[in-house]
Write a structure and sequence with these properties.
This protein has about 230 residues and is of the alpha+beta class. The protein folds into two domains: about 10-40, no CATH class; about 60-234, Glutaredoxin, CATH 3.40.30.10. About 40% of the residues lie in helices and about 25% in strands. It is built from seven helices and nine strands, in the order ααββαβαβαβαββββα. It has helices at about 15-20, 20-40, 70, 90-105, 125-135, 150-160, 205-234; strands spanning about 60, 65-70, 75-80, 110-115, 140-145, 165-175, 175-185, 190-195, 200-205. A seven-stranded mixed sheet has the order 2-1-5-4-3-8-9, with helices on both faces. The protein is elongated, with a radius of gyration of 28 Å.
Length: about 230
């Protein structure tokens, strides 16, 4: 007579735990309650600083139409400063603004970009129009502004409190040649302005700075949406 000997293996602690109903009850409770706990106890970033209100202005956009404070009321916008024949920092700056335009498309009409020329004598509406079209800028989001030199200096220097110099010749050596370029001293910073026309931040063009600006813009828009929703419910 043949005897068959079987092998019996005790379940380990993990297998026993997986068979327990109490484990699954606690598991599902944790799974649903943890996100709620995180949302209730998350540390919110501090409010953005409030600097000053941009004085009212009305300039001319690339369509030769008046554009200014009244058109921007209720919008969050990013202001930057350049001129179309800039031989130094402007090309890199404008590439960053191209990216900003792509990143704010989801905000619809809540956000805008405003580019101020610091060379109004040469950057006429027609010049700005051609420049804007080459950049594939969306006129519903991005406006290029010009005007008289006095008006531009007033809004750039006194309004946004950033520098704007005069056009000066700059000599540079290239190989065995010396060429003369014309440059205008101006800031490379971009300025974040809220829906009430108040400056909320200045940012460099480094990736980390531009990312910080986009986060701050999102916080401003979200805070405004939450405030309006609560106000409507009350």
């Amino acid at each position: 007579m043949t005897t068959i000997t079987g092998y019996y293996r005790d379940n380990n602690w993990f297998e026993k735990m997986m068979r327990m109903k109490s484990f699954w009850i606690f598991f599902w409770l944790f799974l649903f309650s943890y996100p709620v706990y995180r949302s209730l106890h998350r540390i919110l970033p501090p409010p953005l600083p409030t600097y000053f209100k941009v004085p009212e202005f009305s300039l001319t956009n690339e369509f030769n139409k008046p554009y200014g404070t009244k058109d921007l009321l209720g919008k969050y916008y990013v202001a930057n400063f350049m001129f179309t024949s800039c031989p130094s920092s402007c090309p890199a700056l404008m590439e960053k603004m191209d990216l900003v335009q792509k990143r704010i498309r989801g905000l619809g009409t809540k956000a805008a970009i405003v580019t101020f020329t610091v060379d109004p004598k040469n950057d006429t509406p027609d010049v700005l129009f051609k420049y804007a079209r080459k950049r594939n800028s969306n006129p519903f989001i991005w406006n290029f502004l010009t005007g008289t030199e006095a008006d531009l200096k007033k809004i750039v220097i006194d309004g946004f409190k950033v520098p704007m110099g005069n056009k000066e010749a700059v000599s540079k050596k290239l190989a065995d040649k010396t060429i003369t370029l014309f440059d205008i001293a101006h800031t490379e910073k971009v300025v974040l302005v809220d829906d009430k026309g108040i400056v909320r931040g200045y940012y460099g063009t480094e990736k980390v700075e531009m990312d910080r600006m986009m986060i701050d813009l999102g916080l401003l828009v979200n805070d405004s949406f939450t405030y309006k929703k609560v106000k409507k419910e009350n």
